Amino acid sequence: MKKIISPSLLSADLAFLYRDIEMLNKSEADWFHIDIMDSSFVSNISFGTLFIKHVKKYTHKPIDVHLMIMHPEHYIEEFKFCGADNLHVHYEACIHLNRTIYSIKEYGMKVGVAVNPHTPVFLLKDVIKDIDFVLLMSVNPGFSGQKFIHQTYQKLEDTKDLILKKHSSALIEVDGGINLEIASLLFKNGADILVAGTTIFSNSNPKKIIHRMKLENI
């Protein structure tokens, strides 16, 4: 199983963003994870499409965009043309989830559905075969640096069971509070993609941390 690491730019040093982008370009990181927040779905505001456009100019790695916004269906075209490769929308924010999924696919992006810690994954049973990723939030979304919610391990198991039962090819992505020890356990328990921010960018050698996250045993 390939282990995918998607460092979250929410934890990068924005005063030296180009430096951090270049560091990730030269690292074993697979994707760039960018969180979009609107202060309505979550109580924080973060990047927009212009930010993604500038990041895209300086990297050839996929841009993994996580929309923590209300009415994401209104912005799909904008995120396609600013450079998003993967677009995750929240189950909790989509009234017409099927329509939103197919709209993202029509624009040629891979599609993920994110679920908050309190949202049971069985609610994805009718769309699991139509999506590329399930994004499990292992913290309450909105702020970096939170503690990992350990119930996520059971949720990961439930997600694997649903994928197998429905013969889906969806990959499982986990986001929030992930350190080296937790990364190892998540990969061992079936996660495919990990989003990490603080653990990577707060370290004096971020490339080494990314490398260690991809090891079989830590």
TrEMBL record:
Record-annotated active site: 35, 175
Xref: SUPFAM superfamilies: Ribulose-phoshate binding barrel
InterPro entries per record: Aldolase_TIM (IPR013785), Ribul_P_3_epim (IPR026019), Ribul_P_3_epim-like (IPR000056), RibuloseP-bd_barrel (IPR011060)
Gene3D superfamilies in the cross-refs: Aldolase class I (3.20.20.70)
Ligand binding (a divalent metal cation): 33, 35, 66, 175
Catalytic activity: D-ribulose 5-phosphate = D-xylulose 5-phosphate
Enzyme class at the top of the EC tree: isomerase
Cofactor(s) needed by this chain: Mn(2+); a divalent metal cation; Zn(2+); Co(2+)
Key words of the record: Carbohydrate metabolism, Isomerase, Metal-binding
Binding site for substrate: 8, 66, 142-145, 175-177
UniProt pathway annotation: Carbohydrate degradation
Key word Isomerase present: yes
Cofactor, how bound (note): Binds 1 divalent metal cation per subunit.
UniProt EC number: 5.1.3.1
UniProt key word Isomerase: yes
Protein task: Catalyzes the reversible epimerization of D-ribulose 5-phosphate to D-xylulose 5-phosphate.
HAMAP family on file: RPE
Similarity remark: Belongs to the ribulose-phosphate 3-epimerase family.
Protein name: Ribulose-phosphate 3-epimerase
Record gene name: rpe
